[in-house]
């Protein structure tokens, strides 16, 4: 067989074995509305782009990111943003489930004589704490208006300077009456 015919049969000609993993004419990274819908359904169900990219019939995480940046795929970006909002709401609900789940918090132990006792499973409890804290951190960063810590920096309280001076002068600071410049 001629070399050009051999190359036509190969998906790629390369010394790199990883280059042969995805054929040149693969439909894996081809954008279709059905693929876009499946990606967004998986995201809304809690799956990450990285885990989606491991499925052989779905695009890689890098290609999904390229689609999000592509100005010709605005519908995909809008669908993705809706899926992320659903994912964040699901994550918020998981916080309560994780916190309330006491399975495996206690493990049964036995000594050589067969006497049993229950021991607190610190590893399971610490894993649950980590799961809760990680989700809280992600929620606060991804959707701070909904899930972030709120600090009110505005105030409707108005003080007059003379009232503040009188209040300050009535109180002793470190055992001494404060001195206010007039």
If helices are DSSP runs of H or I spanning 4 or more residues, what is the number of helices? 8
Helix content: 40-55%
Task: Please mark out the parts with pLDDT under 50 across 5 or more consecutive residues, or reply none.
Answer: 1-14, 16-20
CATH architecture verdict of the domain at 29-149: Orthogonal Bundle
Please report which band the strand proportion falls in: under 5%, 5-15%, 15-25%, 25-35%, 35-45% or over 45%: 5-15%
**Class inferred from helices and paired strands:** mainly alpha
The largest pleated sheet is described as: 2 strands, antiparallel
- Whole-Å distance between the termini? 102 Å
Shape, principal axes of CA atoms: flat
Q: What are the secondary-structure elements, in order, as H or E? A: HHHHHEEHHH
CATH fold group of the domain at 29-149: Arc Repressor Mutant, subunit A
Rg measurement, Å: 30 Å
- CATH homologous superfamily grouping of the domain at 29-149: Homeodomain-like
What is the residue-mean pLDDT, rounded to a whole number? 80
Name the CATH class of the domain at 29-149.
Mainly Alpha
Report the strand count. 2
Give the spatial strand order of the biggest sheet.
1-2
């Amino acid at each position: 067989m001629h070399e050009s015919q051999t190359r036509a049969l190969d998906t790629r000609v390369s010394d790199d074995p990883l280059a042969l993993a995805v054929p040149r004419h693969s439909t894996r990274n081809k954008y279709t509305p059905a693929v876009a819908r499946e990606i967004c359904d998986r995201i809304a169900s809690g799956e990450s782009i990285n885990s989606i990219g491991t499925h052989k019939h779905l695009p890689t995480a890098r290609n999904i990111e390229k689609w999000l940046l592509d100005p010709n795929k605005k519908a995909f970006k809008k669908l993705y943003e809706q899926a992320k909002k659903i994912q964040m709401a699901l994550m918020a609900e998981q916080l309560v489930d994780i916190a309330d789940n006491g399975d495996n918090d206690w493990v049964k132990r036995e000594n050589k004589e067969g006497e049993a006792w229950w021991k607190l499973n610190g590893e399971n409890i610490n894993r649950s704490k980590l799961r809760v804290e990680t989700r809280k951190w992600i929620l606060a960063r991804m959707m701070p208006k909904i899930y972030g810590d709120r600090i009110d920096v505005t105030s409707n309280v108005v003080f007059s300077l003379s009232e503040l001076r009188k209040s300050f002068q009535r109180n002793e600071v470190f055992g001494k009456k404060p001195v206010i410049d007039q």
